Amino acid sequence: QVQLVESGGGLVQVGGSLRLSCAASGRTFSSYRMAWFRQAPGKEREFVATITWSSTSSTNIYYADSVKGRFTISTDNAKNTVYLQMNSLKPEDTAVYYCAADRNKFRPAVAPSQYDYWGQGTQVTVSS
Questions:
Q1: How far is 38 from 40, CA to CA, in rounded Å?
Q2: CA distances, 111 to each of 10, 14, 18 (Å)
Q3: DSSP 78
Q4: How far apart are CA 66 and CA 85, in angstroms?
């Protein structure tokens, strides 16, 4: 089992940056596939980024096309934390951002239904 708590959201101007954190407790997050999702008002939850493991123990990272080149997912194993660095923010990035985890750590996934553990979410608002 793992408990996830997001932080770092807030209000930022267009073109600005934010760094979201997802602190995991219980099992270490390295035992899980980790991902970030977001949900804007009136929209379904959508995939943002994920980090998984290969058979060589290296990380594999995947991004949604809408954030590729602007967002970066990373981990700090010692702190059991996953980060989402968000640069060049746009108004359409406004959403509640959720951290998610699943035990199938070798398999990438982009659907919310493929993740079993979720944080409470943190609001990101980008002013136009």
A1: 7
A2: 25, 28, 24
A3: T
A4: 14
Quick one: 54 exposed, middle or buried, by C-beta within 10 A (0-12, 13-18, 19+)? exposed
Q: Is 122 helix (H, G, I), strand (E, B) or coil?
A: strand
C-alpha–C-alpha distance, residues 26 and 107, integer Å: 21
Q: pLDDT 10s per residue in the chain (128 long)?
A: 889 999 999 999 999 999 999 999 987 777 889 999 999 999 999 999 999 877 676 789 999 999 999 999 999 988 889 999 999 999 999 999 999 999 988 888 999 999 999 999 999 999 98
Beta bridge partners of 51: 34, 61
- Give the Cα separation of 85 and 20 in Å (integer): 6
Judged by DSSP in three states, 10 sits in strand
